[in-house]
Amino acid sequence: MIKGIKHIIFDLGGVILNINYSLTENAFKNLGITNFNDLFTQLKQTSLFDQLETGKISKRDFIIAMQQWSPVPITESQIIEAWNAMLLDFPLVRLSLLQQLRLHHDLFLLSNTNIIHEEAFNNILFNAHGMQSIGLFFDKVYYSHRLGLRKPNKDIFEYILNENNLKPENTLFIDDSPQHITTAKELNIQTIHLTNGMTIENDIFKKIN
Prior knowledge:
5-stranded parallel β-sheet; 11 helices; 11% strand
């Protein structure tokens, strides 16, 4: 790991939580929204998803919009199930690693997420490990839909740095989306881009683990 790091900012999906975007894409295609990958991917998305991730629209607004995009009638529960299909699991080895890292570093979670996914991934954590919230593993948690800010915009990074008096050169940001890494680098934050197949337990913090 990079020397001189005192603070670590983790992304959630694809870094702490295993995810598979294609499961949600296929689920919506099965519901009749065959162009879903034109609406939402890891790298780009339409304004509807931006608005959901910054808390500018409600869960109900999102459901109605998705129903309007479908050529056939679909229910709220079908939409929520399809939207949550991408969320997989929290490996125990990863959670144990966070506990070890927290003994020596300030840990922060920074996630572009939404009210539907927050409820779902905390349920996954509770059902698998009996823990109420992923926030238990971090000093502070920053969710885009609660802040009204989202990556890759600079303001959300600046907000975290300023609120916690973090020096960029002593701060490490770990994310699996290249556009988020680019912004962090522009702010002189140290970065590690978690590419396909990489995990924090095997490729970054193996000696600790």
